Amino acid sequence: MNRALILLRRRLVGSVFVLLIVVIGTFLLLELAPGDAVDAYIVSTGGDAGMIELLRHRWGLDQSELTRLANYLWALLHLDLGQSVTFSRPIRDVILERLPTTLILMGSATAFSFGLGSALGIYAGARPGSFRDRFLSVGSLALYAVPGFWLGLVLIVIFAVDLRWLPIGGIESIASTKTGLARATDIATHLVLPVSALGFIYLALYLRMMRAGMAEAWRQDFVLAARARGISRRRIVLTHVARNALLPLVTMLGLQSAQMLGGSVVIESVFAVPGLGRLAQEAVAARDTPLLLGIILVSAVLVILINLLVDIAYALLDPRVGASEAGA
C-alpha cells in the first residue's frame, strides 16, 4: 500500500504539468483556427458592425491572445471554467449535466469490452492453434478493422429499424416519467446499441492481446514446471497463464481510455446521446472556445485519473513495478 501511495503522489505532481500543457496547447491551437464565436453567431442570426463590436467586447474577444490566456489560467486557479457563449451559462454547470452520460457510456463499454474480450482471449489462448483459437483470432481482426460509426449505423438499421427491438438513440425515452428501477431499465435499453458499437472495437483488441499474452506465457518456465508437477490444465490456465497475460491488458486499459473518450464523440453523435462528445461537437460548430476548452480540460482530467487507477492496480498486481517506482 505504501508503494501505491508513493506512486500516486509522483503521478499527481506530474499530472499538474500535463494539464498545464494541455490547456495552453489547446488554447493556442484554437486561436490559430479561423473565425471565432462572434463569426458563428453572426452567420446564424445576422447582425451589423455595431453588434459585432458589442459581442466581441462582451465575450472578451477584443483582448489580445496572451491577455485572454492569462485571464483563463487565473480563473482556473479558482476552479472557474468561464461562461459558455452558446448556452449563456457557466461552463461548469453545462459540463456537469453531460458528464454523467459520458461516464456511463464509457464505463459500460469498458466493462463490456475488457470483460468479454479477456474471457474470449482466455478461451482462445487456452488451446493455441486450435480451431476456436484461429476462428476468434480472425474474427477479432475483422471486427477491429470495422469503423465505429459504420458499426453503429449497421446496429441501428438491424436492431432499431428492421427488428424494432431497441431504441434508435437518446439516453432515455422522451418526456419519460419513469423513476427508480423502471428508469434504470429504460436507460440500460437505450445504452445497448451505443455501448455495443463503442465496446466491440476494443473487445477485439483485448481479445487479441490476451490471446497473444497467453501464447507467450505457455512457453515460460513456470508453466512448464506446473505441467511437470501434474497440475490440471484448467488450473494452469486460470492460475498461471491467464494471470500473467492479464498485466499487459491492465496497461492497455489506461492507454485506450483516451481513445475511447475520443470514440465516444462519434458514437454520441450517431446515437444522439447527450454526453460530452456531442457537447464538444456543438461547441465546435458554434466556435464556443471557452466551452471547448472546458470539455478538453475535463476530458484530460478523466484520462489522467483513469491512468492513475491503472498504475495503482498494476503496482498492486506486480510488486516489482511498485518497488521500482518507490526506489526511484
Automatic annotation (TrEMBL):
Pfam families: BPD_transp_1 (PF00528), BPD_transp_1_N (PF19300). SUPFAM superfamilies: MetI-like. The chain crosses the membrane at residues 12-30, 103-123, 135-161, 187-207, 291-317. GO terms for biological process: transmembrane transport. GO terms for cellular component: plasma membrane. It is a multi-pass membrane protein. InterPro entries: BPD_transp_1_N, MetI-like, MetI-like_sf. The keyword Heme does not apply. Keywords: Cell membrane, Membrane, Transmembrane, Transmembrane helix, Transport. It is found in: Cell membrane. Residues 99-314 form the ABC transmembrane type-1 domain. Gene3D superfamilies: MetI-like (1.10.3720.10). Its main location: membrane. This is ABC transporter permease.
